[in-house]
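During the practical work, I selected for study one protein's amino acid sequence and its backbone structure tokens, as given directly below:
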Amino acid sequence: MTAKIAAIPMILTALVIFVGGTAWTVVYSFTNSKLLPRANFVGLDQYERLWNTNRWIVSIENLLIYGICMLVLSFIIGFVLAALMDQKIRFENTFRTIILYPFALSFIVTGLIWQWLLNPDFGVQNVVRGLGWVSFEFDPLNNSSIVIYGVLIAGLWQGTGLVMVLMLAGLRGIDQEIWKAARVDGIPMWKTYLYIVVPMLRPVFITSIVIIASGIVRVYDLVVAQTAGGPGISSEVPAKYVYDYMFQGQNLGQGFAASTMMLLAVAIVIIPWAYLEFGSRNRG
């Protein structure tokens, strides 16, 4: 009873601030609120306008490209790094700290670092040309067709370390007898990982997907720091669209509609995860 009473403030906070704020946002997304919220309901007009706006379509396309590449590459790189770390290499703590260090930085700092590294005047392109390859070109942030991949590089640099640590924790939790049995049976290492280890890491994979996917949907400061959405609107993302309409365009209704769509995207990720984790546990 004491524990339940102590939890009341947090429960009220969650209900009022998170659930209440979310419901308030969804309700006012059906209004034509401008500078200030007003209960002048216009039905689905804001959503029709949203999906007829080229800037929003571009932001969704960028989010899909960034999200798919981020999920696939961060999982592959993170798992490979974790598998290498799991071999009890020398200076493991040093390498693990170095790889995880970018995650300790804010997205603003990461964006500014990679804005400098990808700058053609004094970044990677300038260094390679200084080594003698004068025809080398690497300027993704100023190329509207590939600018989102420049943002992706920065995202991978920061987020892969977290995936590696999660995977490494999962690998270290596997019973050593399984590895010994696989070696005795003559099972190749790659088959051991593919058919035995990976299925056992399912909870770690699911948790990593939820963490990364929620970060992908909310990506904002990395884009602002690197490109500010440019060139033009070629690196626009939904979170930036919401911010610009709510605080710069003074169009709360449109911002609420866009943020509701982001909420829906997050729910698509969270609800299946919750069902798999808690539903299967209850059935068990």
